[in-house]
Amino acid sequence: MPSATLIFPAVNQLAADYWRAAQQRGERTVAAASVAADVSLFNGTAVVSLPTIYERDFPAAFLALIAEHSIARIHCSVASVYAFLRQFCIDQRLTIELLGDSPIHQQMSQHQRLMARARQLRPLVIACADVSKVLPELEIAAVFRQSALIYGESNDEKLAAMMGIVASAPAGDVVELGSLMGRTAFVLLYLSRRYCLGPLLTVDPWLPANAVHRDSPEAIRSLVDDWDYDALAEAFFVNLAPFVGSDHAHLRMPSAQAFPVYAEGCPILSQDARAVPYCRRIAILHIDANHDYDAVRNDCDLWLRRLLPGAWLILDDYVWSHGDGPLRVGNELIEEYAERIERAFVCGKALFMKFRGDANREE
Ligand SMILES: C[S@@+](CC[C@H](N)C(=O)[O-])C[C@H]1O[C@@H](n2cnc3c(N)ncnc32)[C@H](O)[C@@H]1O
Question: Which of 216, 288, 293, 318 to probe ligand 1 with, by most ligand atoms within 8 A of CB?
Answer without folding.
Answer: 288
